[in-house]
From TrEMBL:
It holds the Pfam family TGT. This is Queuine tRNA-ribosyltransferase. The lineage of its organism: Bacteria, Bacillati, Bacillota, Clostridia, Lachnospirales. The keyword Zinc applies. Homodimer. Within each dimer, one monomer is responsible for RNA recognition and catalysis, while the other monomer binds to the replacement base PreQ1.
Length: 381
């Protein structure tokens, strides 16, 4: 299922065989929260720009249109017309970030819908049932994402409960996969390492969940308030205690620099809303850093967003034209920026894989990090 092809330092190059196709890692998963990438991006577009994995959100799809409806219509792949792998997150992060009123108990969490306020209960079993109805390739375990700087005693109790929830998730996933009417009987389960910035709790938790023989392991609860240095320190200390022969996923991270650094620390799955969110606001990524197309300096700039880029935006349109679209609030401007950013991320991962294959990742990382600083230092580029 997960085949480690090469290591270069702690960087891993692998391929993961799933029922919906092979994932080449390291990989960036393109975030389509409600079964669509924000910015009018279709699944045909995703194929064109080199997307390997699409990520959808359990909580949002449960609230609207409803996971039971999606199951009735043949599962999430059929519903959104996407035949490659899909990862669904457990809904845990949204329960803790969106819900102003919530009550955490051993059974699970009671909270109010952010759409109409109706009361929802979600625990490990409910999360697995929703994800089973969606039929995603990879389901994430239900966990509590404690704030990065939460009190240590609170974090320890939270992590212990997350471990108990993980055991329940595994048991329920096995039951659901054995049912005759399940959408995807080969659904995989990833567990999530938590522990805020407390490396002793992180390491202890990594050791415990590694014994559970799951299909993959995520590091959660980062990029939620700590510094980049603190995040890298947590990865340095924690990742060595997760199984090297299983995929390792850093949830919700991040910038191109974050990804380059995390690959060097043994991470091979990533997701983040940055490329689509920034694209919708005219912020586009290049190898030399991020630029803001709303800036007046691009008003007459007939170059593509990035020279040599083969994305749908750069192939046919100039910075000046895309800037005009954005200023005129034309949806095409937003769409082109999102397509460019996702293409940039997907192909950055391709370059990362090539560098690891060739045993030159450390040099590649330093060169790319240095290039990313160009626009910071020379605003006129």
């Amino acid at each position: 299922m997960y085949k480690l092809l090469k290591t270069d330092g702690r960087a891993k190059r692998a391929e993961m065989h799933t029922v919906h196709g092979v994932i080449q890692t390291p990989v960036f998963m393109n975030v389509g929260t409600v079964a669509a990438i924000k910015g009018a991006v279709s699944t045909a577009d995703l194929n064109e720009i080199g997307t390997q994995v699409e990520l959808s959100n359990t909580y949002h799809l449960h609230v609207r249109p409803g996971d039971k409806l999606i199951k009735e219509l043949g599962g999430l792949h059929k519903f959104m017309n996407w035949n490659k792998p899909i990862l669904t997150d457990s809904g845990g992060f949204q329960v803790f970030s969106l819900a102003k009123l919530r009550k955490i108990k051993e059974e699970g969490v009671t909270f109010n819908s952010h759409i109409d306020g109706h009361k929802i209960f979600m625990g490990p079993e409910e999360s697995m049932q929703i994800q089973s109805n969606l039929g995603s390739t990879i389901a994430m375990a239900f966990d509590e994402c404690a704030p990065a700087k939460a009190d240590k005693k609170y974090v320890r109790n939270s992590v212990e409960r997350t471990t108990r929830w993980l055991e329940r998730c595994k048991k329920e996933m096995n039951r659901l996969n054995s049912l005759p009417d399940t959408v995807n009987p080969n659904q995989l389960l990833f567990g999530i390492n938590q522990g805020a910035v407390y490396t002793d709790i992180r390491i202890e938790h990594a050791k415990i969940i590694s014994e559970m023989n799951l299909d993959g392991y995520a590091v959660g609860g980062l990029a939620v308030g700590e510094t980049h240095e603190e995040m890298y320190h947590v990865l340095d200390e924690t990742v060595p205690y997760l199984p090297q022969d299983k995929p390792t996923y850093l949830m919700g991270v991040g910038t191109p620099a974050n990804i380059l650094e995390a690959v060097d620390r043994g991470i091979d799955f990533f997701d983040c809303v940055y490329p689509s969110r920034n694209g919708r606001h005219g912020h586009v990524y290049t190898k030399f850093g991020k630029i803001n197309l709303f800036n007046a300096q691009y008003e007459k700039d007939m170059r593509p967003i990035e020279e040599g880029c083969n994305c749908p935006a750069c192939r046919d349109y100039s910075r000046a034209y895309i800037r005009h679209l954005l200023k005129a609030k034309e949806m095409l401007g937003m769409r082109l920026c999102v397509l460019h950013n996702l293409y940039f991320y997907n192909h950055m991962m391709e370059d990362i894989r090539g560098a690891i294959d060739e045993g030159r990742y450390s040099k590649f990382k330093e060169e790319r990090l240095d290039m990313l600083k160009t626009y910071d230092n020379k605003k006129s580029l």
